[in-house]
Prior knowledge:
The structure holds 2 protein chains of 2 kinds. Chain A is α/β, with parallel strands linked by helices. Chain A has 13 helices and 14 strands. In chain A, the strands form 3 sheets. Chain A has a 7-stranded mixed sheet with strand order 3-2-4-5-7-6-12, sandwiched between helices. The longest helix of chain A is centred in the first third of the chain and has 15 residues. Chain B is of the alpha/beta class. Chain B is built from 12 helices and 7 strands. In chain B, α4 crosses α12 and α5 runs parallel beside α6. Classes of the chains: A alpha/beta, B alpha/beta. The interface between A and B is large, with 47 and 51 residues. The site of thiamine diphosphate (TPP) has 16 residues of chain B, from β2 and β4.
Amino acid sequence: MRLSYTKALNRALTDALAQDPAVCVFGEDIGAGLAGPTLNLLDRFGPGRIVDTPLSEQAFTSMAIGAALSGRRPVIEFQIPSLLFLVFEQLVNQAHKFSLMTGGQASVPLTCLVPGSGSRDGWAGQHSDHPYSLFAHAGLKTVVPATPTDAYGLLRSAIADPDPVVVFAPAAALPVRETVTWELAPIPLGSARIHREGTDVTVVAIGHLVHDALAVAEELGPEISVEVFDPRTLHPFDWTALAASLDRTGRLVVIDDSNRSCGIGAEVLATAAEQMRLVAPPRRITRPDGTVLPFAPGLDRALQPQRDQLRDAVRAVLK
Amino acid sequence: MLRLIRGFEELALTLVKSGEITGGIHPYIGQEAVAVGVCAALRPQDVITSTHRGHGHVLAKGAAPDRLLAELLGRTTGLNKGRGGSMHAADFSLGILGANGMVGAGGPIAVGAAWSARQAGEDRVAVAFFGDGALNQGVLLESLNLAAMWRLPVLFVCENNGYATTLPAVTAVAGSATGRAAGFGIPAAEVDGMDTEAVRAAAAEAVERARTGGGPGFLECRTYRFEGHHTMERLMKLRYRTPEEIADWRDLDPLPRAAALLPPGLAAQVDASVAEQLAAARQFAITSEHPDPAGALDLLYADGLRPRAGSTA
Ligand SMILES: Cc1ncc(C[n+]2csc(CCOP(=O)(O)OP(=O)(O)O)c2C)c(N)n1
């Protein structure tokens, strides 16, 4: 069976809704399934569980928190990644802090789903952010699946999780299709996936960049043996698996489509330098500091991590 | 209950002065009639969200004073195991979804609780307490719209004490509080917030309507805080209210008014039993254990995930 990334998200929502009556979905234009993952859900589960909201992100996000505090498992679909900046208060200051602040009385099993995160080619400054690093920094469980199978499995686990989780579905990964021959199943948060084994260098790639890393690894194959490491969750991060990978390769390159300063790429390098085996200085490829993506396609692309940059970085750490 | 809240706040003030409560508190003294009047109209299964000035709401909804005091002192026996303090006090077993340090933030959380009660077919009502300052938070206005559109069982209680910290409501709130609710088609009433019985009657009416499917309600309770915004204020010698204004409002103190309704002798009896209860609460809180610093982030995640340490050395 051929499964697209968007269809995988749709299947995950459908299965979660069917399995657990506490699950409900909030979002803008989700009744019509505008963004794809919520297609047909309204027909099947009705308006009591699939809630088309007015354009009131702050209120419906906190409303979902209130519902989560009262026994529901809400999923919110955000139309645009930049909307997360509007609800930073609700997610970081409320949802994330509730468990500790209440002395463990409350938990907030809320899932935020952001299909179309990152550059969508020509959507310009306010529609092209990929803000996963901010959420990992704040301590929310942060998930960036690269493949349809992982999108399904990680979204299922996010919904079942007792804590708030933000799931970023990169715009550039949405067209990915996969032939699925096995049963789709939940995938635990905090577990990395090695897409390709190698012995010379570990490339940590996040989200859609996993596919670029695989292409580069293939290309360099005859020359350099590249291990492609996909953390899948940025918080919690599977540091154990990364340490094991670096024990094999001793060399590290990170490719991360978020801003350089305080980005997750910086964290991976810092942790590896502090605690893991490195035989050469590591490298990272990221967006520039404080990036605002310009409109013109050439400018947009110029600020995103590129395959040739990855190729150069891999060669550089092997020198 | 009025007496208990007043006495609790007075005790808390002495503990702030003596340095036993760190960080200070936002005293509720003067506003007791609102919390008591509204909570008297609620059933145990109803839920509330509260504010940075939350002790009154939390006590009126039934929280144990000794555990609230222990929370203010940061002890393991506190309502929140010492992790929340004054501004986050919560008791979920009593429907207290927490005081909240962000102005206006409790509004939409109450709306969500009301939504899930309705979906579950339960006749629970949710109450959101907030101040006049919160009237200018966009998220609160968004919440009014959602509650009205979906006819949710939620009561918005605006405690208009005339000031947001030092900013007078008359210079900050365009139109009127009730006018804003009316703009969303929500029935709104203005009530004397120094009169416990008046608050209770107005709340009971709105709660009954919400409980029976009549949609949200809005109460503006005109009240006053006799103390500063925060206990820090005393040290700062701020001048934004005249002594005359404070004295005029003190004349409206809800406590003597409520005491006058009691049979002779009962008020003195209540005072004595509250004093006893608070002495015991003080003893309980002060002798309770401090949390172990090694567990400072123990409850960050409900699934027990342990965050990495800040240092690897
Ligand atoms: C969103 C937000 N803005 C500012 C503050 C700082 N602050 C805390 S309380 C307060 C005044 C709130 O006034 P009001 O809502 O009238 O409540 P009151 O203090 O009178 O009880 C302010 C400005 C805050 N905590 N949250």
